[in-house]
Write a structure and sequence with these properties.
- Keywords: ATP-binding, Cell membrane, Disulfide bond, Glycoprotein, Ion channel, Ion transport, Ligand-gated ion channel, Lysosome, Membrane, Nucleotide-binding, Receptor, Transmembrane, Transmembrane helix, Transport.
- Functional P2XRs are organized as homomeric and heteromeric trimers.
- It is found in: Cell membrane; Lysosome membrane; Membrane.
- The protein contains nine helices and 14 strands.
- By secondary structure, the chain is an alpha+beta fold.
- It has two domains: about 80 residues, atp-gated p2x4 ion channel (Helix Hairpins); about 220 residues, atp-gated p2x4 ion channel domain (atp-gated p2x4 ion channel fold, Sandwich).
- Strands 1, 5, 6, 7, 11, 12, 13 and 14 form an eight-stranded mixed sheet that branches. Strands 2, 8, 9 and 10 form a four-stranded antiparallel sheet that branches. A two-stranded antiparallel ribbon has the order 3-4.
- The protein starts with a helix and ends with a helix.
C-alpha cells in the first residue's frame, strides 16, 4: 500500500500541471500587509539601488601614477660625526621609489671598516673562554664574518671568537634614543598624483586647477581647513594615524597615505576631488613586539691614503610611506539603468509570493483561503470517459429495472 501511494504521488508530481488562479481576498489585514511589502521593495530599489549605489551609472576603476618630493634639513652633533647637516640627499633612501618614499629617522654608524681579523660581537654563539669554543670556518646566522678558530679579547671583560670580516664589526645593540633625526617630524613631502579613468577618458591630478604657485609654496595639508593641499608634514601624517612620531622614529615603521578618488561624472568636473587618509601598516602588537619597526643596512665605499678599500657602514632606521591610490568613477548609462529597473519590477512579484506564504501557512483561516485559491481539475478525456461509463451503467440499471417490472 505504501509503495502504491508513493507511486501515485510520483505520478502526480510528474504529470500534474499547476497554473495560477487569481483569488481576490477581501481582507484589510492582507491588503495592508501586501502594500507594506511592496513599499519596502520600492524603497530598496529606489533608495539603495538607484540613489545610494547609483544603479543608473556605469563604473570604472582608477589608473594612477604618483611622484613625491621630500624637503627638510636637520642638524646633528655627535662625538662620532661632530656637527653635521643632513639634507634630502642624505636621509631619503633611495632617491625615488614607485608609489613610496623612505625617510631615515635613526642611525647606527660604523666608520672606517676594512677587511681583516677582529673579535666578533659577543652573543650566545660567539662568547668564548678558549679557542676550543670557536670553530674555524663557522658562520652563524647573526655573525658578521667567518670564524678563524681563535678566541680573542673583545674588551677588558669579555672574549669572543675571532672572525674574518669588515672590521671593526658593527655594534647594533645600543639604539639611539631619542631618534638620531628626530627633526624629521617637521620635514614635508609634496605628493603629485595623476589619475585616469580609461572607460570615460577622464583624467585629473591632485594639484587642483585653482591652485597657484604661490599657494603651493605656503600651504600645508589640514583635514579641516586645507584638505586639498598636496604638501604634507611628516609628523602630521603619523599623528593623523593615531601614532607618535617620536616613538615611531626610534625603530621605524611603515605608514600608508591613502588617496581616494570617488567621482560622479554626471556632476561638475570640479566636484571630482581627492580625499586623504592615513594609517600605520606594519604590525604593532604590544604583547608580541618581536622584530618591530623598519630598518636596513647601507654602506659607502672609498679608499684611504694607503689605497686600502674602506667603507662606512650605516644601519638605517626610518619610516617608509606607501602611497595607496584607489577609487571609482560613475556615469549615466542606459543599459544598467534598464537592467536595474527590470530587476526592480521583477522584485515586486516577491510581494505576492510572501503574502501567499503568510496567508496560506500562518493565518487562522488558511484552509478556507486555500480552498478558494486552489482547485483540482481532472483531465478532460478521462472525465469524459468516466461520464460515459457512468451513463452506460445508469442506462443498464434502468433497463434491468424496467425488465424486472414486466416479467
Amino acid at each position: 500500500m505504501a509503495s502504491r501511494g508513493f507511486c501515485r504521488e510520483l505520478y502526480s508530481c510528474i504529470f500534474d500541471y499547476s497554473t495560477p488562479r487569481i483569488a481576490l481576498i477581501k481582507s484589510r489585514k492582507v491588503g495592508v500587509m501586501n502594500r507594506l511589502i511592496q513599499l519596502g521593495i520600492l524603497a530598496y530599489v529606489i533608495g539603495w539601488v538607484f540613489v545610494w549605489e547609483k544603479g543608473y551609472q556605469e563604473f570604472d576603476t582608477v589608473v594612477s601614477s604618483v611622484t613625491s618630493k621630500v624637503k627638510g634639513v636637520a642638524v646633528t652633533n655627535t662625538s662620532a660625526l661632530g656637527t653635521r647637516i643632513w639634507d634630502v640627499a642624505d636621509y631619503v633612501i633611495p632617491p625615488q621609489e614607485e608609489n613610496a618614499f623612505f625617510v631615515m629617522t635613526n642611525l647606527i654608524i660604523t666608520q672606517n671598516q676594512t677587511q681583516g681579523h677582529c673579535p666578533d660581537l659577543p652573543d650566545q654563539s660567539t662568547i668564548c673562554n678558549s679557542s676550543h669554543d670557536c670553530i674555524p670556518g663557522f658562520i652563524s646566522t647573526h655573525s658578521f664574518g667567518v670564524q678563524t678558530g681563535q678566541c680573542v679579547a673583545y674588551n677588558e671583560t669579555v672574549k669572543s671568537c675571532e672572525v674574518y670580516a669588515w672590521c671593526p664589526v658593527e655594534n647594533d645593540t645600543e639604539l639611539p634614543e631619542p631618534a638620531f633625526l628626530k627633526e624629521a617630524e617637521n620635514f614635508t613631502v609634496l605628493i603629485k598624483n595623476n589619475i585616469w579613468f580609461p572607460k570615460f577618458n577622464f583624467s585629473k591630478r591632485n594639484i587642483l586647477p585653482n591652485v597657484t604657485t604661490s599657494y603651493l609654496k605656503t600651504c600645508l595639508y589640514d583635514r579641516m581647513h586645507n584638505p586639498f593641499c598636496p604638501i604634507f608634514r611628516l609628523g602630521s601624517i603619523v599623528s593623523e594615524a593615531g601614532e607618535s612620531f617620536r616613538d615611531m622614529a626610534i625603530q621605524g615603521g611603515v605608514m600608508g597615505i591613502q588617496i581616494r578618488w570617488d567621482c560622479d561624472l554626471d556632476k561638475k568636473f570640479s566636484k571630482c576631488v581627492p580625499r586623504y587618509s592615513f594609517r600605520r601598516l606594519d604590525s604593532r602588537e604590544l604583547d608580541h613586539n618581536v622584530s618591530p619597526g623598519y630598518n636596513f643596512r647601507s654602506a659607502k665605499y672609498y679608499k684611504n691614503i694607503n689605497d686600502v678599500e674602506s667603507r662606512t657602514l650605516m644601519k638605517v632606521y626610518g619610516i617608509r610611506f606607501d602611497i595607496l591610490v584607489f577609487g571609482t568613477a560613475g556615469k549615466f548609462d542606459i543599459i544598467p539603468t534598464m537592467i536595474n529597473i527590470g530587476s526592480g519590477l521583477a522584485l515586486l512579484g516577491v510581494a505576492t509570493v510572501l503574502c501567499d506564504v503568510i496567508v496560506f501557512q500562518f493565518f487562522k483561516k488558511r484552509y478556507y483561503y486555500r480552498e478558494k485559491k486552489f482547485k483540482h481539475v481532472e483531465d478532460y478525456d478521462e472525465l469524459t470517459i468516466s461520464l460515459k461509463g457512468l451513463c452506460k451503467q445508469r442506462t443498464t440499471i434502468s433497463g434491468n429495472e424496467e425488465h424486472g417490472s414486466n416479467p
